[in-house]
Design a protein that fits this description.
By secondary structure, the protein is an alpha+beta fold. 66% of the residues lie in helices and 10% in strands. A hairpin with a 4-residue loop joins strand 4 and strand 5.
């Protein structure tokens, strides 16, 4: 990914972080709050609160920023200042985006856009469309992101003071999106547009960044000669501009280029220089990448001692980044809950006051009516009416109390449900971060696919991929006990245990991996001393891609091999017992099976969710034999097309019936 997007989620955040430097210090905020306390004009209060809100957001105090924004919206709405109201919604959207709360960010950006469209403010419309597109990019909804960005580009007025920055934002974001999709030619198209603009205005810093982005894409394409030219130009401009930001990333790219062309001595020089720069800047993400590249370089030089040391440092910084992001997001989730709670309390208090006022008005009217009737009717009739009035009033009071109690309980249930749903959706992002990326798998196995369709938001199925060296990879498909949240906990344990066995203990024989995984699961769940029988079914392969051989071990899950010319799938059978759960008497180890492969063989590892799905005209299970027949019918199709057809056939079979289990299929062509 290009340098801008390794350090910042998007151009929006980069621009925002420098938008209000005046208010970055605590004394300035204190001074603004003192002025705010004395101000009585709603419009001026709104402007002051906008400055305070921006100051809080710049210093990552997002809960305070949202409180200031909510107060500012009330004052600015009262003053009829819609421009400032829109700015508050924009700031709230940015704060939610930083916190990883994409749905809330999108809601506030849409509110901002609705207002600026009514005001016909084309510059802010362009900014709003850009922000919405960034949220969709974060949510991996790339078509939606491009649609919003193209809409924003159409409203930019060329030649205005803001148009240059807006075009750079859009082209940079589009380039970043295409890099994520591995569509490098499209990424280069937009990065070159950004380069043309930055060169036209003579901005050395932005030109250096654009050159580096292009070089980064060329490295992905292994076009090292062209990448070196762009990266050297970027280094030269960075030095001329006196720019320190991003220079470590440029040297990292040069190190990757020299490693790619086999000049390991030069690669070491540039990677060490990048390491020196980033240690001063303390960028965890950059340090993680540098140590990863150094470890890979050491492995190529057969310097296994330093390779191990650098890999340990890579893992350390990878864990640090994950922990920081998790802690920050959980903190903002808590802050959001507190804000919503306080807003609910204020709304409830206002409803109670309105109810008291309405009740008092109705009571006074009834009393006045009773007095008039009392003067006109006889004492007995008056007494009867008065008694009826008292009974009715008491009944209304009881009904009102019951309605209020029901309303409070409904609000509480609604809040609890929201918190649970938010937590589960955030757990999905954590689980997705742990799973190997499609780019990582495709880099080693270009003709492959992963069909992963959880039943619920989070999944009990997971897949594992690890590149051991230039020839060997380990791939596994795992089906944990249960699905949803319980299954997701098991999948986290399983993924962590397999990674530790391979990377830390250096165990790579499939049967030995399953043996250690069995011990690890039983130990983590304390199954020797509890009633827990949870575990997982696993199909695990070690592939030698150059030699065309594999080793396989399975726990209740087989390996299927489709071979040209054979009418049936070759099945490598697993051991009939799971990983974890109870110990099996008389069985000490899993079986390790070696298979010689042929060019064009297609391997399939899978969970049982696909074959067990109910559907069809008679709402019956698909069954294993039908699943095998389907795979054989797709044998002549490319692997990517197979994935699409498998997904289409599954959804067609399921129809309107509920999905009963998680679905996972991993396919690799030799």
């Amino acid at each position: 990914m290009p340098l801008f997007f390794r350090r910042f989620p998007c151009f929006l955040l980069l621009v925002y972080s420098f938008a209000v430097p005046l208010y970055g210090k605590q004394p300035v905020r204190d001074s603004l709050r003192q002025v705010l306390a004395k101000e009585t004009n709603p419009a001026k209060k709104g402007k002051l609160l906008l400055s305070i809100c921006s100051s809080y957001a710049t210093n990552s105090l997002f809960d305070s920023a949202r409180l200031a924004a909510d107060a500012g919206i009330r004052y600015s709405t009262l003053a009829g200042d819609q421009q400032t109201v829109a700015a508050f919604y924009y700031d709230k959207g940015v704060s939610y985006l930083f916190a990883g709360l994409n749905a809330s960010a999108l809601d506030n950006f849409l509110k901002d856009l609705k207002i600026v469209e009514k005001l016909h403010d084309t510059a802010e419309i362009a900014n709003g469309c850009n922000s919405i597109g960034i949220v969709y990019q974060r949510m991996k909804e790339y078509d939606q992101a491009r649609s919003w960005w193209n809409r924003g580009i159409r409203v930019i007025k060329p030649g205005t003071a803001a148009s240059r920055d807006q075009y750079l934002n859009y082209y940079g974001n589009l380039g970043s999106l295409f890099v994520e999709q591995l569509r490098y030619d499209s990424a280069l198209l937009y990065y070159n547009k950004a380069l043309k603009i930055s060169e036209a205005v003579g901005d050395k810093k932005l030109t250096a960044v654009s050159l580096q982005n292009i070089g980064d894409v060329l490295i992905h394409q292994k076009k090292y000669k062209e990448a070196m030219d762009y990266t050297r130009r970027s280094i030269a401009l960075t030095k001329l501009s006196g720019q320190s930001y991003g220079s470590g990333g440029i040297y990292l790219n040069m190190g990757m280029i020299f490693k790619g062309i086999g000049d390991y001595l030069s690669a070491h020089e540039y990677l060490e220089e990048a390491l020196k720069i980033e240690k001063q800047g303390e960028s965890l993400d950059e340090l993680r990448q540098i140590y990863d590249e150094l470890a890979d370089l050491n492995m190529r030089e057969h310097d296994f001692g330093n390779a191990y040391k650098n890999h340990v440092l890579y893992t350390k910084f990878k864990d640090s980044i994950f922990n920081q992001e998790t802690i920050s997001t959980l903190s903002d989730l808590k802050a959001t809950y507190e804000i919503d709670k306080r807003e609910s309390e204020m709304e409830a208090k206002e409803r109670v006051e309105n109810l008291k006022r309405d009740t008092e008005e109705r009571r006074q009217k009834l009393i006045d009516g009773a007095l008039v009737i009392g003067f006109l009717l006889m004492g007995g009739v008056a007494f009867f009416l008065y008694r009826s009035y008292r009974i009715k009033k008491k009944a209304n009071t009881v009904i009102l109390d019951q309605q209020q109690e029901i309303a409070v309980k409904n609000e509480t249930l609604k809040q609890i449900n929201k918190e649970i749903n938010d937590s589960i959706h955030y757990a999905r992002y954590i689980q997705q971060a742990i799973l190997p990326s499609a780019a990582t798998i495709l880099q080693s196995c270009p003709d492959s696919f992963v069909l992963f369709q959880p039943k619920d938001v989070v999944s009990g199925d997971f897949y594992f991929f690890n590149k051991l060296n230039d020839q060997e990879v380990i791939v596994a498909a795992c089906d944990c006990t249960g699905h949803g949240v319980p299954g997701a906990f098991m999948s986290m344990i399983g993924s962590e245990q397999i990674g530790k066995i391979i990377t830390e203990w250096k165990i790579t024989r499939p049967a030995d991996i399953l043996n250690e995984l069995h011990k690890g699961v039983r130990q983590r769940l304390r199954q020797d001393s509890t009633d827990s029988r949870d575990g997982m079914d696993v199909a695990l392969c070690k592939l030698n891609l150059k030699a065309g051989t594999l080793e396989f071990a399975g726990a209740n899950r087989p390996l299927w091999i489709a071979r040209q010319g054979l009418p049936e799938l070759i099945e490598v059978r697993p051991d009939k017992r799971p990983v974890g759960g109870m110990e099996w008497a008389g069985v000490s180890t899993f079986t390790n099976t070696e298979v010689t492969l042929q060019k064009g063989d297609r391997l399939y590892l899978f969970s049982d969710g696909y074959a067990d799905q109910f559907g069809g005209a008679k709402n019956k299970k698909m069954m294993v034999r039908n699943f095998k027949s389907l795979l054989l019918s797709l044998l002549d199709l490319p692997m990517a097309t197979q994935k699409e057809r498998l997904a289409q056939e599954f959804n067609s079979w399921r129809g309107s019936h509920e999905q009963i289990d998680d679905v996972l299929i991993v396919g690799i062509q030799i």
